[in-house]
Amino acid sequence: MSIVPHTVSRLPWRLMLLVSIIAAFGIVVLYSAAGGSMTPWAANQLIRFILFTGMAFFLSRMPVELFAALAFPAYGAILAALVLVELIGGVAGGSQRWINLGFMQLQPSEFMKPVIVLAVARFYARLPVGEIRRWTAIWPALVLIGIPWALVLIQPDLGTATMIAAGGVVTMFLAGLPLRLFIGTGLVGAAIVPIAFSFLHDYQKKRILIFMDPESDPLGAGYHISQSKIAIGSGGLWGKGFLQGTQSHLDYLPEGHTDFVFATMSEEWGLVGGICLIGAFMLLFAWGIRVSIRAGDRYASLIAAGLTTTIFFYVAINLMMVMGLAPVVGIPLPFMSYGGSSMLTVMLCIGIIMSVERDSRQSRPGWS
Fold first, then answer.
1. In angstroms, rounded to a whole number, what is the distance separating the alpha carbons of residues 73 and 344?
2. Tell me: the pLDDT tens digits for 169-215?
3. Which of 177, 270, 310, 335 is the most buried (most CB within 10 A)?
């Protein structure tokens, strides 16, 4: 009997069909945003999705033990790359986030989003259960999270820094740290918000102030949020129809193919399209949590839950941002927003979660 057909049959085809549907819908939206053309966005997005899907399948064949072994070395390598960004990184749009490799612009902070989960989970997986409530179970993880968070924040990239911190802290919570610790930390954080605000860059302060009152400057700093709300609201229940959007086609909506692609979609596909898209993402999250629950060991469970949460933060922050429920921090919508970095990160997460699922199936062949 051939091994290949058996191996192919064990691949998570239902998951990949779900992800492909979301990505295909994103390509359709990008096609419309370009005025009915595959260039310059839709064709590139399709090519990237095919390449990164292959990468995800490759990662899914790797044993979870390999990710555990590489967690700290990968963390150290990306941390060194973040320091290198500060020394020789390219500057664009007022931010210093990229390393020019000649054939591509590398943004190391994107890789830190999944790697921080792998590193923090590795720390807690090696920690004896009896020490989980001691101070020695807290400060090393905070250092692991705090160093890359600070390096990314000074680039400046508030959105990515927030994602790194959120992914690491959620992994700490899932590891079993007492809830009172997070409540206390939240209260302390709220108390120092005024101090932290004073250290932000002027454009970051303006984003927060505009988030609180976008109508105070509708033609200036509040323009993005105001136009996004108009685009989403004008779509109504069923939308204006494919290729019929006016806010994006007439260039009223800035970044309609990247950060605000949900607004572009909502204008043409309406509330129904938005609900269907969110429903598809919910199915993706449910799969990730199910894999975490059924994982064979503590480390596998932590990384599956942590990486699922990382994808969740992408979606939640972007949707809140375009609806005016959060400041504009430049977080893209997975598989929908044009760009390779975010798709690469999300497919890395999915590939590793698929590896956890494969290991769980091998250890417990009877579950499905």
1. 20
2. 999 989 888 777 777 767 766 676 666 666 666 766 766 666 666 65
3. 335
Model confidence band, residue 103 (pLDDT cutoffs 50, 70, 90): low
pLDDT at 104 over 60: no
Task: Summarize pLDDT for 336-346 with one digit per residue, the tens.
Answer: 999 888 899 99
What's the token pair of residue 7? 């191996």
Q: Order across the sheet with 90-92: list the strands.
A: 90-92, 95-100, 105-106
Residue 4 has pLDDT above 60, yes or no: no
- CA 122 to each of CA 65, 109, 172, 306, 347: distance values in angstroms, whole numbers, following the listed order: 10, 20, 11, 12, 21
Phi/psi of residue 196, each to 5°?
A: -60, -35
Buried b (16+ CB within 10 A) or exposed e, 89-114: beeeeebbbbbeeeeeebbbbbbbbb
Cβ contact 60:351 at 8 Å: yes
**CA triple 141-183-301, angle to 5 deg:** 50
- Of 310, 317, 319, give the one whose Cα is nearest residue 159: 317
Which residue, chain included where needed, has tokens 């390219």?
A: 90
- The CB density around residue 128, as the number of other CB atoms within 10 Å, is 8
Burial-class residue 169 by CB neighbours within 10 Å (0-12, 13-18, 19+).
buried
Per-residue pLDDT at 368: 47
Global pTM exceeds 0.85: yes
Q: How many CB atoms lie within 10 A of CB 3?
A: 7
> Taking Cα atoms as reference points, which of 298, 236, 302, 225 lies closest to residue 267?
236
Q: Which residue shows structure tokens 């927030």?
A: 162
Q: Are 121 and 303 in contact (CB under 8 A)?
A: yes
